[in-house]
Amino acid sequence: MKAMISNGVRGAGILAAFTVVFTALMAGAYSLTREIVLKNEEQARTQLIAQTLPAGSYDNNLLADTRLLSAEDSRRLGNDKPASIYLAKKGGKTVAAVLEAVAPDGYAGKIQLLVAVAANGNVLGVRVVTQQETPGLGDYIDAAKSNWIRQFEGKSLASPEVERWKVRKDGGVFDSNAGATISPRAVVGAVKRTLEYVVVNRTTIFE
Amino acid sequence: MITAEESRKITLNGVWKQNPGVVQILGMCPTLAMTSTVVNGVSLGVATALVMLVSGMAVASLRQYVPNELRNPVYILIIAALVTVLDLLMNAYLRDLYLVLGIFIPLITTNCIVLARAEAFASKNGVLQSGLDGLMMGIGATVVLAVLGAAREVLGKGTLFAGLDLVLGPQAAHWILHIVPPEYNYQFLLAILPPGAFIGFGFLVAGKAWLDKRASAPEASCATGHAKG
Q1: pTM of the entire predicted model
Q2: CB A14 to CB B70 under 8 A?
Q3: Could you tell me if the ipTM is greater than 0.95?
């Protein structure tokens, strides 16, 4: 009996020692890479925001002209956390806004988007920030994989009309690949909600 | 130390005789999930091989401190920690590739071939042997991922090496081979979707078995011929 207990205690001690050593290893790797990862992410974000806007259409530093949306507005755009809105200015005048939106109904979880909307309510560009859609199947919503996401450019709630803001399979105007309609359907819905938000809040965003 | 004979045997075992994909049929989850293109398959295979190299060496060098009854939790701990470190390092230094492989890096932990080699080989052999065994088993798995990925990509999308630019930079976008000219918009969904993975994988397993059978057949027929003669 005594031997069994001491054996168990010894085993627990060994397991604990291994846990401490390998947790330290992971913590070390984490603190070593944290700065670089954060910098990578910020750089990727800046590049992504710039991609949603036509080159030369603004002359300010987008990350500097950033506002945090209220919790309620963020939720309306699908975000759990407070979302940012980046204002693109030219000659001091706000010409476009880039909003963080989330499509909560992707095939494999949330799809984070950046949606750039011009002052006249037209979409300038949409980009996927993060997604976990099926590789090779639903991930064509990502600009890195295909040009699908570019079909939003120039669209507004007036053209096509609101009820046709759907994928073609659901009777709308937006293309989707056969067999992978859930991801594009989610993105179309999120872009539409973003436009609706911008229409309602036009004056506060652009003036 | 490791002899040339040993390393030859370990290499042959990992890549061909005991191939983790088509002989041991281990680690099917990534094999089936990540083989929609060659690039995806090979990238995950290389990451798996790296983890197996390091985990084999780690397990072999720590094996004397691990009590027999505790080896499974300790091996899983070692493998999970190494995968986490790899995940963090790739996120920091190979971000483009990291974005491609995405959620499949953490899944290397659950790939049973990694634990199976820790248990069956690294727990009984030297550090160098175990590292080589892990690497070769990983390469064996990579070969299967590459073949299956190529077959599914050609059949499903009519291309080869799509997505290479995500791994090697934008200039590699020109290296994509269009077996079917892009203007035809060719797509064969069955091959891209999971059923295509299962069917293709079945053919690979059958093909390997057939090759093995054929390789041993001449001796057999020779033997019967001798008996008759």
Answers
A1: 0.70
A2: yes
A3: no
